[in-house]
Amino acid sequence: MALLLAFFVLPNALLLSTSFLKSEAQQLTGELTLENYTFLFGRPIYQWAFLRTFIVGAAVGLCTVLLGFPLAYFLVRTTSPWKGVLIAVCLAPLLASVVVRTYGWYIILNRFGVANDVLLSLGVISERIAFMPSTGAIIIGLTHALLPYTVLTIMGSLNGINPNLEQAAMSLGASRTRTFFHVVLPLSLPGIAGGFILAFSIAISAYATPAILGGPATQVMATAIYGFITQLLDWSIGAALAVVLIVSSFLLLFAAARLGAKQAAI
Amino acid sequence: MKRRELLKRGAAIAVAAPYVMTARSQETLIVNTQGGEYQELVEKVVIQPFEKKFGVKVIHDATGTASQDYAKIRAARGAPGFDVAGLLTPPEVMLGVKEGLLEKLTERELPNLKHLWDKTWQVIPGGSGAPHTLQYAALVYNKDKLDKPTSWADYWEPQKKYGDKVKGHIINYNPANLLSVYALIHAAQLGNGGVDNMDPAWARLKAQKPYVGVVVTGSAEAVPHFENGQVWISPYWSARSGYYIDRGLPFEMVIPQEGVIGLLDVACIPVGAKNKKLAYEFLNWRLDPAVQRAWALAYFSSPTRPGVELPAKFAASQIVSKEQIAKTQFPDSGTIGARRKDWTLKWQEIMA
């Protein structure tokens, strides 16, 4: 309890109080104000940063689930003697730093990168396209970075499903598709939801990938917070942004948890 | 005989005592600067000779940019864990003085302060720090790809001089980097504006945007784009430009006809520094003529004091005379600090 107070409640209380203090010429004053919030909510650039953050979070969550489910299903159900190796290969990206992996995408996606070279040589495009900095590039980079987490979470859920249930459904005349949608998918929903929430919550607070693939002109909340705190030295607005990120994440995760609980009850 | 031997040994111990003490309880100074090529240079040219001369140990914390380092000082209320903030720029120094987080320095602790250019104290408050490096925001260009630029307009309106071939080969920097602020001030000046009227700068930024292929924040982030041939023209710090060009980068540095804005790199002592006495020695050492010369030659920068002898060819690209100092612009750092947030916001709105 004391640890929770010292390392969670107090820092967040400090952050919250700073977000209501006025800054003048980069200096905190003792004056209470709502200006920091009106500044953020009144400017399209920060409204876009909020929106972009949650679009990125939702898109990354969805993409990791869509890509991760078939992979997890295969890894759980395969009887290959190479199963262990395949799982290790699937998780191998976690061995490299996220910065290194992101720079890999940088090499592929930049205006003079591999993707442009290939599309130009195939005649798909006639002049080079700037795939980055962009929201799409951030989503691609984070999906790649977070896919192993979602695969692991879904695998945990699929491992708990008795394979006899699928065989029973099929022996009673259900097709493979019907068995999947009526047996496997509903039973693996907690894993899918868990994977989605995990990827979503890491994505909305990610800094390195959005900073590299989005650059300073395509901001998400984490990069904007970093900019205000360490580059512009305006701690009031940085704190207000951090409070908005924390509160909105909590609300969304709370809603997801409630939804999950409801689903489980059904 | 025995008495003589005893006296000899006693004398030897007495003479050696201070050094024995030093060796046993070697003093330690923690100096913060930055990484990359700067780390290697500063350790070789400044830190190691200082350790040798004073018989002390310097722990080099080579992390962070000037604003990040000041953020550490502020977050730790003046006791960030390092004794010397070795690489602040004037906006952070101004803020540090206002917030009372930097130690006030006088000629008593730093006798070399009295030898600095007079203009120094128009740029930063007197006694707020030891400016050890003078450089400026120059224009650099890839000589294999472009003709020599002569004006800041060649960067801000590249299509006028170079046509559409420069599309995607222009770099722009976030105003969180002082280099961007200085380039924007030049853009404003091209339209008869300045720090008090940046509207002409925003018009030029909008016009330049379709030609921009790379957008970064830190100066060091630009270097790979220079090396891989993606960026052909850029504002860049004169010191680093000289350093990279000397190492084979196919670029040249130009002082545009409108002139340049100067930058002082300043070493300061946070108020909560543990070893202030040695920190004073380090700052004074940084301003010593021999160290100034060695550092200028290694980092391709200008000394911050007059009278430092430099080879004529080297000095030609540096700010070394009273006339050159007078011609170099030093915009008010207080104004820059106060308006930087609004400028960054405007820049983001245009570049988003």
Could you describe the 3D structure shown?
The complex is a heterodimer of chains A (about 270) and B (about 350). Chain A is mainly alpha-helical and about 270 residues long. In chain A, about 75% of the residues lie in helices and about 5% in strands. The longest helix of chain A is centred in the first third of the chain and has 34 residues, at about 45-75. Chain A starts with a helix and ends with a helix. With about 350 residues, chain B is α/β, with parallel strands linked by helices. In chain B, strands 1, 2, 3, 4, 7, 8 and 9 form a 7-stranded mixed β-sheet that branches. In chain B, strands 5-6 form a two-stranded parallel ribbon. In chain B, helix 2 (about 35-55) links the parallel strand 1 (about 30) and strand 2 (about 55-60). Mean pLDDT of chain B is about 90; it is low at about 15-25. The chains are: A mainly alpha (about 270), B alpha/beta (about 350). The interface of A and B includes residues 133 and 216 of A.
- Low-confidence segments of chain A, given as residue ranges, are none
SSE string of chain A, helices as H and strands as E: HEEHHHHHHHHHHH
- The topology string of helices and strands of chain B comes to HEHEHEHHEHHEHHEHEHEEHHHHH
Q: Uncertain segments of chain B of ≥5 residues (pLDDT<50)?
A: 13-24
Total DSSP E strands of chain B: 9
| Radius of gyration of chain A over all CA atoms, rounded | 22 Å
Q: Strand sequence of the main sheet of chain A, in spatial order?
A: 1-2
Based on the structure, what is the oligomeric state of the protein chains?
heterodimer
> Tally of extended strands of chain A?
2
